[in-house]
Specification:
The complex is a heterodimer of chains A (224) and B (196). By secondary structure, chain A is mostly helical. Helices cover 79% and strands 0% of the residues of chain A. Chain A contains 9 helices and no strands. Chain B is of the alpha/beta class and 196 residues long. Chain B contains 6 helices and 9 strands. In chain B, strand 1 and strand 2 form a beta hairpin. The chains are: A mainly alpha (224), B alpha/beta (196).
């Protein structure tokens, strides 16, 4: 069986074995979005104004929740180092894993956007743009998460450290996406900004697996 | 000269683990790496396997072994299994074998019928057998086994020795560490941990 298929099949089986890992970020998003109107005034225009940003940040945090799981379990069980003996380049296998992770854990999250958007009384066209920015930006965010997780594989309580390390990379993505959303609500054109976001995301998706592979190798080499 | 180790050197935490290790291992040979705890046996095996950068050279048939990772079957200390998945899912993932082949391998290691058992339900010894089942599933010429006999009962030790013998007779190479000298195998010994 091809290596790509083996990786995807195993990720699917893990999803089936631990469905909570897919549901947990979704519950988190739902919880955050449910609580915001309670914490603010019931003024729905205010909600509609900050709603998109809230959804973006909540989705980002939900992605970060999963950061540890990307590689840590496989690393500590000695499974990850076995990938180094496969006939495919390690960075390629990492890329497949990231893609599968995005598909099974992040995409369901993104598909909740219309639901949480409606909960915050956000207009349909803004929800649509929100959805597009999330679809475009989350591959990069997944890759940055992966790098944070890979760099902190050996550390004990690595969750927060990984996030802190990758924060400088998350910030441009969030800013670009926020720019797109703001321009949409202002009625201006979003093409160029969206293209920039897409380019950033694509660049990350290509380069990050190489960096992640190197970070993992570093940690594997450091362990005996 | 199938496997050549040339001037291998390793320092960890400002301590020299081993220095200037040079060995040749031919096809059909077993090399046992021996030495007290902390002598660097695991580190040496992991270095040869290519899990970290080699200080020196490791050549397989005159080419760097690091360029041919698929020649190596490495079984180390770690469980190498994912607890939430079944035995079969684990072996299918690591070795790419068919269900049929996995079934035969499990039979060989005394885990007949455990295909659909979750790994987290197995004992230490059983988990070890799952990891070792790969020796029946994959056809890689160089075996690097770090303490393969750990947690195995007498019967399984004999089964493993028999499998290693088969591998050697089929012109494979085997590097292993073990604290108990293998009774059934012919091997050379490389001693670590002296004079550093």
């Amino acid at each position: 069986m091809g290596i790509e298929r083996r990786i995807i099949q195993r990720e699917w089986r893990l999803v089936m074995a631990r469905p909570g890992e897919v549901l947990k970020p979704m519950w988190f998003l739902l919880l955050v979005i449910s609580l915001i109107p309670l914490a603010l005034s019931p003024d729905s225009t205010l909600l509609a104004e900050i709603g998109p940003a809230m959804i973006w940040v909540a989705t980002l945090l939900a992605i970060l929740l999963n950061m540890d799981h990307l590689f840590k379990d496989d690393y500590s069980e000695g499974v990850l180092e076995q990938w180094l003996f496969w006939s495919r380049p390690f960075a390629w296998c990492v890329a497949i894993k990231l893609l599968t992770h995005w598909l099974f854990y992040i995409l369901p999250l993104i598909l909740m956007t219309p639901i949480v958007g409606l909960m915050l009384s956000i207009e349909a066209d803004v929800i649509a743009v929100l959805l597009v920015t999330l679809l475009v930006a989350t591959p990069a965010l997944t890759c940055f998460s992966g790098l944070g997780g890979a760099l902190t594989l050996g550390a004990a309580r690595s969750g927060v450290l990984g996030v802190l390390v990758m924060l400088p990379l998350f910030v441009p993505v969030v800013i670009l996406a926020a720019g797109v959303i703001t321009r949409t609500t202002d009625g201006a054109g979003v093409g160029p900004l969206l293209a920039l976001l897409a380019a950033f995301s694509l660049g990350a998706a290509i380069l990050m697996p190489l960096a992640i592979a190197a970070a993992i190798r570093l940690n594997i080499g450091g362990s005996t | 000269m199938t496997l050549e180790l040339k001037h291998l050197h390793c320092e960890r935490d400002d301590r020299v683990l081993f220095r200037d290790i040079s060995q040749c291992v031919e096809r059909g040979e077993i090399l046992r790496v021996a030495g007290p705890n902390g002598a660097g046996k695991t580190t040496l095996l992991r270095m040869i396997a290519g899990l970290f950068e080699v200080d020196g050279e490791v050549l397989w048939e005159s080419a760097p072994l690091s360029a041919m990772p698929e020649s190596v079957l490495y079984i180390g200390h770690a469980p190498q299994v994912t607890r939430e998945l079944t035995v079969q899912a684990n072996l299918q993932f690591l070795s790419g074998a068919t269900m049929e082949a996995v079934r035969h391998a499990l039979q060989a290691v005394g885990l007949r019928g455990y295909d659909d058992s979750l790994v987290r339900e197995l004992s230490q010894g059983q988990k070890r057998r799952v990891a070792l089942a790969r020796l029946w599933l994959e056809s890689r010429p160089l075996w690097i086994l770090d303490e393969p006999y750990t947690a195995l009962d007498v019967e399984m030790v004999a089964v493993l020795d028999q499998r290693i013998k088969q591998h050697i007779q089929a012109q494979g190479v085997c590097l292993l560490t073990t604290h108990q000298p293998p009774q059934q195998l012919d091997y050379r010994t490389l001693e670590l941990g002296h004079g550093y």
